[in-house]
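Give me structure tokens for this 141-residue protein.
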Amino acid sequence: MKTIEPYQRLSIRVYYEDTDFSGLVYHASYLRFMERARTEMLRALGMDQRALLEGAAGAPIFFVVRSMEIDFQRPATMDDLLTVETQALEIGGASFMLEQRVLRQAELLVRAKVRIVCVEAGRARRLPSDIRTKFERLLPN
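Here you go.
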């Protein structure tokens, strides 16, 4: 079995398009950064979102953000190299909670808690057991 680090990490460079008129990273850009990190976390766990949507887990399923709590602590600026860390906090029947942190080196810039729901045909559905098992590998001990 492949060893998975408890925190999945993704490096992101801040570009001009990520900033607002003040030169600071626009708040919605952090949402895109965190979305990319969640996608890469799924890849690291061996999940292909397109394949899931095409029925690789039985019925076509996909994941949606149900809720997000964000704490913006410090701004990032153009050319900063950021790290987005993603960790599973808990797994429910049809959903899981992630913590995401955006850092510039060791400095915490943004922290978010994200509730993700598994959806089939427009309705929440229980996580398939193989997917649940993969997420359980990310839970803190």
